[in-house]
Amino acid sequence: LSDASAVMAQVADKLYRSRITDLAIYGAGQMGRELLKIIGGSLKIHCFIDRNEKLWGTDIEGIPVLSIEKASSLKVKTIAIASIAYLEEICHTISGFFRDNNDVNIIYYSN
Q: Can you tell me whether residue 81 is helix, strand or coil?
């Protein structure tokens, strides 16, 4: 197991234990792809969210990559963070955009 897959396996486990059925993934890089590989067939993934605007409008295995602005208009209840860097900053950003949806559930790696 690479570091990325070990980290994302923990996030996937949290998703399963929380009985999550659908989500968005924050991070369209290596870890996001790793998480998709682990949970791909079993959970509905609405979109990837990424702050790299070059990725907006593209897709990863048919799943669109969106800005957080665009993703916040979807009825997403759970966001899994596919990153271990900048966790606090990412949580803060998500909370800012999803504040009207105060029951948004943020799942992330913790060691």
A: strand
Tokens 């949970």 sit on residue = 39
Residue-wise pLDDT for 42-98, tens only, equals 999 999 999 999 999 999 999 999 999 999 998 899 999 999 999 999 999 999 998
Are 82 and 29 in contact by the 8 Å Cβ rule? The answer is yes
Handedness of CA 95, 110, 26, 9 (dihedral sign): negative
What is the dihedral angle through the alpha carbons of 110, 37, 49, 78, rounded to the nearest 10 degrees? -60
Instruction: Tell me, yes or no, if the pTM score tops 0.90.
Output: yes
Residue partners of 95: CB distance under 8 A and separation at least 6: 104, 106
Inter-residue contact 106 to 88 (CB < 8 Å): no
- Strand bridging mode 105-107 / 44-49: unpaired
Contact 2, 23 (CB under 8 A): no
